[in-house]
Amino acid sequence: MSIDKKILSFLETSSLEVEKINSLIVTAFCRENSLVVNYNLLLLEMFIGEEDSDYLALNNFTNLFKENNQTFDFECLIELFEFVISPSDKIVNGAVYTPKYIRDYIVSTSIRSADNLENKTACDVACGCGGLLYEYAIKLNKKSNKNFVQIIEENLFGIDITEYSIERTKILLSLLALSNNEDQKEIDFNLFVGDSLDFDWFENSQTIKKNKGFDFVFSNPPYVGSSNLDEKTKNLMKNWSVTSTGKLDLYIPFFEIGLKWLKVEGVLGYITVNNFYRSLNGRALRNYFSNNSYSFKLIDFGGEQVFKSRLTYTCICQITKSKGNLSYTSSTPQKISALKNSDFIDFKYSNLNDVDGWQLDDAKTQLALKRLEGSGEKLGEMYNIRNGFATLRNKIYLFKPFDEDDNFYYFKKDSKRFKVERAICRNAIKPNILKDESDLEVFNEKLIFPYQIIEQKNEDLFEQQSNRLIRVLDPSFFELNFPYAYNYLNAYREELAKRDKGQREYETWFAYGRSQALNIPGLKLLFPYISDKPYFVYTDDEDLLFYNGYAVISDSEENLKFIQKILKTEVFWFYIKHTSKPYSSNYYALAKNYIKNFSIPEFKTSERTYFMNLKRKGSINKFLLNKYNITDIEL
Questions:
Q1: Helices (H) and strands (E) in the chain, counts
Q2: Residue 532 within a domain
Q3: CA-CA distance, 180 to 370, in Å (whole number)?
Q4: Are 33 and 107 in the same domain?
Q5: Quick one: which of 292, 329, 266, 275 has its CA closest to 123?
Q6: Are the CB atoms for 517 and 387 separated by under 8 Å?
Q7: Would residue 226 count as lying in a domain?
Q8: How does DSSP assign 212-274, residue by residue?
């Protein structure tokens, strides 16, 4: 359902506090649906009467529904409650509206085979405004003789870290009961304001303690990355075993939380981030699932978007707390209701790689991927694959000159003209924007490089090779020998000091933010961080520096161009699409971890010559598939 923008704009620009926003929405909902409250104290306290100062705002708000033919049903109510959460709270608490078709699928499929449903308890461990509990209440009411007040008091449990979310869950469920002529004075809710990371359900509910857990746990866990976690949350997350690898992400411990409080044979149903089965920070979680061997159904949405307000790549996870296999399928969100058991592929946990990531495609694809990784030496073993440099203030160190002479480059920055000494500059390129070799000259930039390269000869008679060391220039030497470059950087000294939020001590004030990738001599095959096609650009500029991208390094032009031809094929892209992290618009990650295990078959000299002379895309793909012994896959 789509809510008219004028209604959302009215709420967005309203200066009303949380309680008054709740009163406005509740009173408007009852007015639009001809609901009369006589006894329910929670709802009565919220009603806006003619004598109240907000009565005019109420009339203006309800008129918007009539003027725009907007139906004010329960789905609209749920979405409005989620919409009025402040942007700052959404960042910190990761709240997001879960569409009805997703909630319906999670609850319906989870309870499908349950007996004695009228006695089954359900909990949302990050309940937000209560959409999933609402969904369960409706289905339980249809399948049993219980009224909504009984269901709310006996079957529904929830927790959220924000008080207003719990308040809105109570409102939603109270209005659900009221709409079915259940106008009870007080309802005994099992809803708690608390942090699921340290909340003990057995201490807070004798019902759940006696039941040895919940029969169902439904949730849309919070979407909060490491950069937005406060110290208290980070410390609490350390108490959960699944957070021990990679960057912290708040959704990850919610699997362990939900399963801890789920009773044996109970079912967990989540809509959540889909990269845990491939990412580094999902490694401990994968190990947790494998050790417990839970019966796990995973529906992967890939790069398809579910949420309007957030760019997030998601999946549906349904886990039964009993022994079983992992069953995987991919789907667009809108087609989940048409999924059949035959659409899922079963995997034994013992056959999955918890360390590098689970490869969860159909058996035919699985075999193809296995051969693409096992038909020869791996790319990461054959070549040095490097990330680019990171100044942490590229806009200051990098420039494109509008003029140059024998001694200086001339450029503009912030409407001012500068010149810097040529001898302090290096060529630099951004692989993320390169498509082919013709782009190298177009996008070439100059980099102010306040470092010196020191050649160190190896004294070992049997190893006559030199080592190149990189050292940042002494400030006095820099100022004396390159005064224009020094003065230019000095003009931005305050901005440079803001790097790493000003919390890091730099070797010297003009040093780069990170010291890696400043000394990568050799021929290069440049490629981007993420891409929708296999762009690999060859350069013979051995001293070229690069940023925002990667490079395969070699001292052999012949070998690099051979590898380039393989990597630019649909065969390699097939591998990436099935093993890498997906992004929207069919973009995929090309980080070292995602390409290093791609193997290169051994080519005879005649085969290599033949392959390098092939021009047609179909012929190139056919030849490569034969080399990898792969048949019948769709590229």
A1: 27, 27
A2: no
A3: 57
A4: no
A5: 266
A6: yes
A7: yes
A8: TSEEEEEE-----BGGG--HHHHHHHTTSGGGSSSS-BTTTHHHHHHHHHEEEEEEEEEEEES
Q: List phi, psi (to 5°) of 390.
A: -140, 105
Which of 18, 262, 253, 292 is CA-nearest to residue 124?
262
Distance, CA of 22 to chain centre: 31
For residue 104, being part of any structural domain is answered with yes
C-alpha distances in Å from residue 294, one per residue of 22, 318, 467? 41, 10, 52
Encoded tokens for 422: 């040529």
How much is the pLDDT for 308?
66
CA 512 to each of CA 449, 485, 520: distance values in angstroms, whole numbers, following the listed order: 9, 15, 16
d(CA 263, CA 208): 9
Q: What is the CA radius of gyration of the chain?
A: 30
Write the burial class of residue 528 (CB in 10 Å: 0-12 exposed, 13-18 middle, 19+ buried).
buried
- Give yes or no: residues 375 and 424 share one domain: no
Same domain assignment for residues 160 and 264: yes
Neighbouring-strand partners of residue 300:
315, 330
Inter-residue contact 95 to 251 (CB < 8 Å): no
Q: Are residues 84 and 172 in the same domain?
A: no
pLDDT at residue 459 in the model: 55
CATH (domain of 297): 3.40.50.150
- How confident is the model at residue 464, as a pLDDT? 42
Q: Which two tokens stand for residue 264?
A: 């044996």
Residues with Cβ < 8 Å from 430, sequence gap 6 or more? 443, 445, 546, 547, 548, 549
SS (H, E, C) 483-520: HHHHHHHHHCHHHHCCHHHHCCCCCCCCCCCECCCCCC
Residue 499 · residue 509 · CB < 8 Å: no
Which three-class secondary structure state does DSSP give residue 422? helix
484, 408 contact by CB (below 8 A): yes
Q: Which of 26, 61, 88 is the last residue of a domain?
A: 88
Q: What's the gap between Cα 597 and its chain centre? A: 23
Q: Tell me the average confidence (pLDDT) per consecutive run of 10 residues in the chain, 635 residues long.
A: 83 82 94 96 94 92 91 92 69 68 96 93 96 97 95 98 94 97 96 97 96 97 88 94 93 97 98 92 96 95 73 90 94 87 90 91 81 94 94 96 97 96 97 96 96 72 58 96 98 94 89 87 94 96 94 96 97 94 91 94 96 96 90 69
| C-alpha distance from residue 491 to each of 150, 399, 514 (Å) | 70, 15, 21
Cβ-contact 140, 156 below 8 angstroms: no
The parent domain of residue 65 ranges over 5-88
Residue ending a domain, choose from 88, 112, 139: 88
Q: Does 325 share its domain with 379?
A: no
In a domain, 534, yes or no: no
Residue 393 shares a structural domain with residue 468: yes
- The tally of domains found in the chain comes to 4
